[in-house]
Specification:
The protein has 84 residues and is mainly α. The protein has helices spanning 7-37, 53-63, 68-80. The radius of gyration is 34 Å and the shape is rod-shaped.
């Protein structure tokens, strides 16, 4: 009476539908993993804190780039808030 067979096109459409389903599922999982593995960006306007001028001066003194007299002179100027 009725033919329960899908025929050639029925199997082809079923295969294409399953391939599309599994392909989209795999791509979705890959995109989710990539999204979750990246660090979230910093909020806008959240620039990294700058080091203070005194800290930079102390580092230069510690590295031997400037001597004690120059260090003390520049530190006095920094703390006074004036330029040389």
């Amino acid at each position: 009476m009725y033919d329960d067979d899908f025929g050639g096109w029925g199997y082809a459409l079923m295969f294409a539908g399953m391939a599309l389903f599994w392909g989209l599922l795999i791509v979705g999982i890959i995109l989710l993993v990539r999204y979750m593995s990246h660090p979230f960006p910093a909020p806008p306007g959240g620039a990294p804190p700058l080091r203070s001028a005194e800290a930079v001066l102390a580092e230069r003194f510690a590295r031997g780039e400037i001597d004690e007299q120059e260090y003390r002179s520049r530190l006095t100027i920094l703390r006074a808030g004036t330029t040389p």
